[in-house]
Amino acid sequence: MNTKNNIGWIGIGRMGEPMVEKILEAGYQVSIWNRTSSKAEVLMRYGAEVVNHPQELSKKEILFTMVSKGSDLDEILFGQDGVMTGGDLPSIIVDCSSIGVEDSMMIRKKLEKRGCKFLAAPVSGNAKCVRAGKLSTVVSGPESAFHVVSKIIESYSKRGVSFVGEGELARFCKIAHNVLLAVVTQNLAEITILAEKGGISRKAFLSFINNSVMGSIFSRYKTPAFVNLDWTTTFTPELLRKDVDLGLSAARELNVSMPITAATREALQTHFGLAQSKDDPENYLAQDFSALLETVASQSGINLESENAEVSSGLEENSK
Predict the structure, then answer these.
(1) Whole-angstrom Cα distance, residue 247 to residue 253?
(2) Pairing between strand 160-165 and 136-140?
(3) pLDDT one-digit tens code per residue, 63-109
(4) Region for 50 from its dihedrals, namely left if φ exceeds 0, alpha if ψ lies in -120 to 50, beta otherwise
(5) Helices (H), the chain
(6) pTM listed for this prediction
């Protein structure tokens, strides 16, 4: 199968745009549909083709999707003018969205009835990670389909691609990943405020953490937010809370003890309570989950101020 000229992509948002850009840079030709066409048109300068309806991508051998919800994916595939209403059908659909296991199972069954192989391929990282070559991907579904598309995924997932098995196992991995994300973020916020109350600047403390054995890609790229109180959205508290709830639900079903996760869930809920004291609670909760730092500070009697310091996110080396 010649994949170079047979790739379609649906969904150009914060993540979709840089991911498609990386695929184009790798020499593939990509045809795109996005609900707001102007967002897709920015990629035309890199050689992308923009189509007017999802159905027009039915002739592509491989179709990637990156949307917000399972219902959105179902609509663009099976709704009016959906991909699967075309005369031809893609051989493989790779969904990079973070949708629920149940939605994914339902869509997989519908695609299998039409002879289409479905790969769940959620990612770890944000748009800056894509551009810096530090995005990673976990994939599940038919292994034969994975081998066909693995090189394409590697073009935007420079950090690595992990195939974990059949069905929805990748969705399960992503939920577990986001549970860890919540726990680490909450604890990082707590120790940063502890250090600040002890007289250490956030910049100095996080520099120490990042250079220690406990430092990570995540702690580094959240450092500018914690130091300068930049809550530009990469992932919202609401989405994080949803995934923690999914993780705890799975733990109950599988009889796994997760007391640290349960405590983190209550800490997350405190953030939602604090938001009600803001002038615009809805807008505040639409900001990045790193604003959890403010909640910990408020509980500790600290009024946070930006340190207005230049700090590295650790993502600059390979960025454009």
Answers:
(1) 10
(2) parallel
(3) 999 998 899 999 999 999 899 988 789 999 999 998 889 999 999 99
(4) beta
(5) 16-25, 37-41, 70-78, 101-113, 127-131, 143-156, 169-197, 202-211, 217-228, 237-254, 259-275, 281-285, 292-299
(6) 0.89
